[in-house]
Amino acid sequence: DQQVKQNSPSLSVQEGRISILNCDYTNSMFDYFLWYKKYPAEGPTFLISISSIKDKNEDGRFTVFLNKSAKHLSLHIVPSQPGDSAVYFCAASADFNKFYFGSGTKLNVKP
Amino acid sequence: GAGVSQSPSNKVTEKGKDVELRCDPISGHTALYWYRQSLGQGLEFLIYFQGNSAPDKSGLPSDRFSAERTGGSVSTLTIQRTQQEDSAVYLCASSVGADRTDTQYFGPGTRLTVL
What we know:
Oligomer: heterodimer
Helix content of chain A: under 10%
Low-confidence stretches of chain A: none
Shape of chain B: globular
Number of helices of chain B: 0
Number of strands of chain A: 11
Number of strands of chain B: 10
Strand content of chain B: over 45%
Mean pLDDT of chain A: 95
Distance between the termini of chain A: 38 Å
Structural class of chain A: mainly beta
Low-confidence stretches of chain B: none
Strand content of chain A: over 45%
Radius of gyration of chain B: 13 Å
Number of helices of chain A: 0
Distance between the termini of chain B: 37 Å
Radius of gyration of chain A: 13 Å
Largest interface: A-B, 24 and 28 residues
Order of helices and strands of chain A: EEEEEEEEEEE
Largest sheet of chain B: 6 strands, mixed
Helix content of chain B: under 10%
Largest sheet of chain A: 6 strands, mixed
């Protein structure tokens, strides 16, 4: 039973435009959420996180939005750059040491 | 400084053989995680080590899987009597402490193929 879902396996965006990656979860006990970015042949790298006490967190070009009532998380990248092309994973945690990951969305930013 | 390293980077084995995968965490990191990523799936939590505490093994899929962490540093994930469904990328991550908000740093993974 997949508790974290990324329903879009891929997304293509023009350079300079906004990229919106979406993530849905089913477990209402999740209270800490993260996004990771992964390049081929490398491990995921941490991008941004949000606690359930907030509904928005920003870090430069990256903003994560949390809608607890909809159990929905999104990552906005503005403006998108070709170097942002990667696979993006969302992850969630209810316990202090166990994280559940989505299956990833492959973002392609076209020059 | 050096990041998390994993070896081997690729491993091809025959069904029924045992395999050992190694993880060298970042020096000084007390927390260590193992995950696996099967084709088209997200990362699946396997096991978590924190300092000298008993590990959280709740994600191990069967008793063919085991892991140990020696001296609070290097970790080995062992899969006995491998099956074709064990084929996946096995990822290791470490973090500085037990707080779940501590950033996990991932290694590049070991791609395991069971023929």
